[in-house]
Predict the structure.
Amino acid sequence: MSDTTTLQSAPTPRVNGVEQVRRLVTEVPGPRSRELHARRTAAVAAGVGSTLPVYVERAGGGVVVDVDGNSLVDLGSGIAVVNVGNANPRVVERVQQQVAAFTHTCFMVTPYAGYVEVCEALARLTPGDHAKKSALFNSGAEAVENAVKIARAATRRDAVVVFDHAYHGRTNLTMAMTAKSMPYKHGFGPFAGEVYRAPMSYPYREPAPISGAEAAARAIGVIEKQVGADAVACVVIEPVQGEGGFVVPADGFLPAIAAWCTANGVVFVADEIQTGFGRTGAMFACEHEGVVPDLITTAKGIAGGLPLAAVTGRAELMDAVHAGGLGGTYGGNPIACAAALGAIESLEDDDLPGRAARLGELMTERLHQIAGGNPQIGEVRGRGAMVAIEVVQPGTTEPDAAEAARISAACHAAGVVTLTCGTYGNVLRLLPPLVIGEDLLTEALDVLAEAVAG
Ligand code: PLZ
């Protein structure tokens, strides 16, 4: 190597043609984004929001490039969707082949192999070694709706139990199952009946420390008194709550709820729509506590950005539904299935669950360091590459949504895409693509540190 080459810095890597850098060339959002935003405001319904109105031109690895040429670090993954990275090459290749072969026949009319292959992969990857079957849908909410249909058909019971801070979707039944009123439910009732809410294990917000087993006993007490065990078709729970604030229940909570379900003929449904496909450092979050759900709902990370969702579960439960009772025009669309097969291949071949664990350690360590000097950070929590800070009034546990919004906005202005969540709107969450470079993630955390410090 000559002297001149050693003086040059290593070229920044590219993924999908996207340089893996944070680089701002205009203010955020820039003029082109603002122009598009004005058109959008005239054409798109006001009820559809956007966290950060920069309009995207290209994305890959850990970077999103906007129409003004700004490169932003992606700590959102399109809400935990592009775990394998945006336009992941394996996804792109399979989608391109499929889209050129046929785009749609409807699995319910003339089926195709991709759907079957995705269901085979789900049977292999989801927790438990029992016989499993799956049905495919388009969105997370649709998967949750169908899990409830299956549980009701299998048990011939009506009641659905969900938890405080839960998020399960925006359709009528899933709005009823979602806890938070504004913005998800406000003004949209009446909601579906036979949905009951039990207290969650939310360690940071317990008035006094209680164990996972105690929190489960509290929830079970509510269910038995207010619903009756023999009326319950299913208990639906996110193993780590997503929209509700990245709430990680105390150890032992999930296994105790699952065991109670088994003992009472209740279907235990894990909603792994946000936690699934490597995000938490395991393929599915239930695995951290050895919980084997009867049914599991998946979406988001399953197909690298194409709309696909699934219900997977015990074959005898899945088969309890009469022929023709499950379906939909687009469920398991061939292009979405091709994308899923590419995404799953990448998750497994590149050990992305392992990478999630590593990225999680990196983020958690840094966030604890940041929290040390900034008393508005009440808690750092999460699992794997699903981590968050809960922002409070210093010295209290009083939620401070305005401060969380300020920190998030400061990150946006500096070219880092961050999201907030939580029942109280005071949780800043980090969900990087699992393929993000560690240097880039570290740089984004530097930006976050500065944003927190103000
Ligand atoms: N279950 C656990 O996280 C979707 C919602 C974004 P859909 N979460 C992101 C928003 O504001 O609409 C989600 C989830 C869990 C179900 C869903 C619903 O999945 O694909 O958005 O319907």
About this structure: The chain has 14 helices and 17 strands. The two ends are 44 Å apart (CA to CA). The pocket of PLZ is lined by residues 79, 139-141, 144, 167-170, 238, 242-243, 271, 273-274, 299 (CB under 6 Å).
